[in-house]
Specification:
With about 800 residues, the protein is of the alpha/beta class. The protein has 5 domains: about 270 residues, Rossmann fold, CATH 3.40.50.300; about 90 residues, no CATH class; about 120 residues, P-loop containing nucleotide triphosphate hydrolases (Rossmann fold, 3-Layer(aba) Sandwich); about 120 residues, Methane Monooxygenase Hydroxylase, Chain G, domain 1 (Up-down Bundle); about 80 residues, no CATH class. The protein is about 50% helix and about 10% strand. The protein is built from 32 helices and 15 strands. The strands form 4 sheets. Strands 2-8-9-1-10-11 form a 6-stranded mixed beta sheet, sandwiched between helices. Strands 3, 4, 5, 6 and 7 form a 5-stranded antiparallel beta sheet that branches. Strands 12-13 form a two-stranded parallel sheet. Helix 6 links the parallel strand 8 and strand 9. The longest helix has 26 residues. It is elongated.
């Protein structure tokens, strides 16, 4: 349970340490804490609102409000900074005037800003004007200084006062002091002195403050709060160093972190480490906590910008925006700049931001974690870790005959070589800590074993390593977790979608997909696999009988629904078992018992499975073939005049091409099927019919139907001894046909032979024909582009070339 600000202030008061250094983020409430502490130490009189005595000197954002510009608005000539009178300013400025130390203020101010910029106090110290004195009697008077320079000046007034106060109080006997105005002074509270200084001057300021505080030998106590990590770290180190001149020791100080909790209360956490805390890691932690709780505010973009700045410096980037995702770098940069811009009192500001901005912040937090994790530097490892890495690389070198090492440059070469071997399936198992979890793309990657607490962007990135479809071998990836990541997964999915996304992305139970369910997100009833299969069997028992456009559309929607639900069911072992059961003779008791033992099933399980009707492999192939035929027909026919006369709206039909590709039948399988079928039947007519059905069910091989059929009819299949021979024979045959048909096409269309062969070779290599560039124009017969027949000829030739490329891509050979 946290504390109130008053309770935190009381904790500060009760501390016996000479120095309390406190780190707190903007928006935490440290400025309000300084005010609560002041009221606790020196309560104001209810009637006069003045301090009853000088028990505390404090500097915070509101100190600057005591100085304001009184401009000559009519002629804009007499510009002056006016000091608002109150108990503090009256006492402080009178003291400074009487001590005659306005020169100290000027010296400090010029050191932190501009050596020629000179402030001048009025005789009563109630006003200040500024001029630029360049020497040789050259002066620019009545200068209006910037807001940053104004903040510097006000701090220099306070710092000069503090110097004199410490010097006065260091005199042990009160009677011997030059003034008794500060005899009751107990505390100095400094909240973020100057935020406009560059790093060099900020470090100088921190060193000067630390030395000044150490020089105080009285009972005066100091509290410093800051949101600036660099300022905090320098002070941390300085206060950890003893100073024998003044008898200061590190135990005289305490370092803490001031936090605002989710319930609106506060906590003060002591920093026990001997070195400055890793503020960038804590910053990241604060951002992640805000993401988890859904309490992202505008000031969190200040945290994000700070995180990018510090991480970019650590990683050696020239500009922090170079860490932003490249695809929308400028847009992200502008958004961060706009949302991290803040007023003087931004620490008090709480501003609700748009949901899209929250998603952007969450995404960018994940991106910077990815960059940090992937930027691995071996030189930063300790000796034990580097020794282990060296052994691992030596084993790798022995296995693959390479010569990499754990040195920085060679490690990157090792990393690239390893990535290449993983993608080419030379490495089967990879154990990683942070690398390869983001940005690494290997479609063959099948399973991710997770023994690490992943969250948000990191979880989504890591899980996505396995989500690439890789033909029929891999239709989905597997995630095996050794930790409970269910809630983290739900939170990540919810964060990067809307509040209902988890109901869409997280899979239902096997029974729900089998029998149907109600969609929580939309309220719609979703049919299960059983109902879809039943309707397919009832409405389309013979797909060849589908004739009308209405029937084509109805079948396309229904079979697309089948492909989607069947693809999801493949994730479940129960469905795998169900499909495997189809190959078992249910009347063979021994086979059933063996099946039950292998798949850990009971008699009741077998009985339930036998009630479920599956489509046969042959029926699925027929449906796939018809589905592909309709897709080709729609693309071909709807580009012509028929599109104008059709009354059927196809906009709600989505052809599941990716799902078809995920179960793609490769050419080698078709050729092996030819070999096996011929061994059994020796009937080429039946063989051709079977092969046509299989090829038409394949998206990638449909164009090769005539090529494969011609091979069957023109080849003595009985003379082929094994599967390897039929594959070799087919490719030899196909390469010969490719060469002959290319020559025939060139002659028939009167094409430029050299240019045509160059175009066809390039197209076969990239596996598609293209109209881009000048290559297509170069192969056409000589004809003026102004000739009305030119465009018609070009389109006709391109169509024929496209069909040729689709037919012969992948067969190899030369033209």
């Amino acid at each position: 349970m946290g504390q109130s600000l008053i309770e935190i202030a009381q904790t500060l008061k009760n501390t016996t340490k000479k120095v309390q250094l406190i780190y707190a983020f903007n928006g935490t409430g440290k400025t309000r804490l300084s005010r609560e502490f002041r009221l606790l130490i020196a309560p104001k009189s209810i009637e006069t609102e003045e301090e009853t005595s000088i028990k505390i000197l404090y500097y915070n954002a509101f100190t600057e409000d005591l100085f304001f510009w009184d401009n000559d608005l009519d002629s804009d000539v007499n510009r002056k900074l006016t000091i608002r009178p109150n108990g503090f300013t009256n006492l402080a400025l009178t003291f400074l005037r009487d001590q005659g130390i306005d020169g100290n203020i000027v010296a400090h101010f010029q050191r932190y800003t501009n050596p020629f910029l000179t402030p001048r106090f009025s005789p009563d110290f109630s006003e200040v004007t500024f001029s630029i004195d360049r020497g040789d009697d050259q002066r620019i008077s009545n200068v209006k200084i910037s807001k940053g320079e104004e903040s510097n000046f006000i701090w220099c007034v306070f710092y000069s006062l503090l110097e004199q106060v410490i010097e006065v109080l260091n005199i042990a006997e009160p009677d011997e002091r030059s003034t008794g105005d500060f005899n009751k002074l107990e505390y100095v509270f400094i909240d973020d002195p100057v935020s406009s200084l560059d790093d060099t001057h900020l470090i100088e300021l921190a060193v000067n403050i630390a030395e000044l505080i150490k020089s105080s030998t009285s009972e005066l106590k100091f509290i410093i709060t800051t949101h600036n990590p660099l300022f905090y770290n320098v002070l941390f180190n300085e206060f950890n160093n003893a100073d024998s001149r003044y008898g200061y020791k590190p135990r005289h100080g305490i370092k803490s972190r001031f936090e605002k909790l989710n319930d609106g209360t506060f906590s003060l956490v002591e920093q026990h480490k001997d070195s400055p805390f890793s503020y960038h890691l804590f910053l990241l932690s604060e951002l992640e906590k805000a993401i988890v709780s859904g309490s992202i505010q505008k000031y969190h973009f200040n945290f994000l910008r700070n995180l990018f700045e510090k991480t970019s410096t650590f990683l050696g980037y020239n500009k922090w925006e170079e860490l932003l995702p490249q695809e929308s770098r400028e847009a992200y940069y502008r958004r961060i700049i706009n949302l991290s811009s803040h007023s003087k009192h931004n620490g008090e500001e709480i501003s609700i931001i748009e949901e899209n901005d929250k998603r952007v912040l969450s995404y960018l937090v994940g991106e910077i974690k990815r960059v940090y994790d992937e930027t691995f530097e071996p030189s930063a490892m300790d000796s034990s870790a580097k020794e282990f890495l060296t052994k691992a690389i030596n084993d790798y070198n022995a296995m693959f005959r390479t010569s990499y090492s754990a040195d920085s440059k060679e490690f990157q070469n090792y990393y690239r070589d390893l990535a290449k071997r993983v993608k080419s399936k030379e490495v089967d198992l990879l154990i990683v800590v942070g690398m390869f979890l983001t940005g690494f793309d290997a479609p063959t990657l099948n399973t991710l074993f997770v023994d690490k607490n992943l969250r948000y962007h990191g979880l989504m990135q890591a899980f996505s390593r396995t989500n690439r479809i890789y033909n029929a071998t891999k239709t989905f990836g597997n995630i095996v977790t050794f930790r409970d990541l269910e809630q983290a997964t739900i939170e990540a999915i919810t964060l990067f979608g809307d509040k209902n996304t988890k109901n869409v992305v997280l899979e239902k139970s096997y029974d729900e997909y089998l029998e149907g369910f109600t969609d929580v997100a939309t309220g719609e009833a979703r049919r299960g696999y059983i109902d879809v299969v039943k309707e397919l069997n009832e409405k389309f028992p013979d797909p060849d009988a589908i004739a009308t456009e209405k029937e084509k559309k109805e079948f396309s929607k229904l079979f697309g629904e089948y492909l989607r639900v069947e693809n999801i069911l493949q994730n479940y072992d129960e469905f795998t078992n169900l499909k495997a059961l189809q190959a078992i003779d249910i009347h063979d008791a021994d086979a059933i018992e063996e099946f039950k033992e292998t798949h850990f099933l009971s008699d009741d399980d077998i009985a339930s499975m036998q009630k479920i009707s599956l489509l046969t492999d042959r029926t699925i192939q027929d449906y796939r073939s018809t589905y592909n035929d309709i897709r080709d027909w729609l693309r071909r026919e709807k580009s012509g005049k028929e599109a104008e006369s059709s009354k059927i709206d196809w906009d709600d039909v989505v052809f599941e091409v990716d799902l078809l590709k995920s179960q793609e039948i490769n050419l080698d399988y078709i050729l092996e099927l030819i070999f096996e079928h011929n061994k059994k039947t020796k009937d080429k007519v039946a063989l051709v019919e079977e092969v046509r059905r299989v090829i038409r069910a394949s998206i990638g091989n449909r164009a090769k139907e005539s090529l494969v059929v011609d091979f069957i009819n023109e080849t003595d299949l009985d003379a082929i001894q094994n599967k390897a021979d039929i594959i070799d024979l087919f490719f030899t045959y196909a390469q010969g046909k490719q060469k002959a048909e290319a020559s025939e096409l060139i002659e028939e269309e009167n094409l430029n032979e050299t240019e045509a062969k160059r175009y066809i070779t390039a197209s076969l290599k990239r596996e598609y024909a293209s109209e881009n560039g000048t290559e297509l124009n170069a192969l056409l017969p000589k004809m003026s582009p102004l000739n009305p027949q030119y465009l018609t000829k070009k389109q006709s030739v391109f169509r024929k070339l496209t069909l040729f490329i689709e037919k012969f891509k992948g067969v190899g050979g030369q033209l």
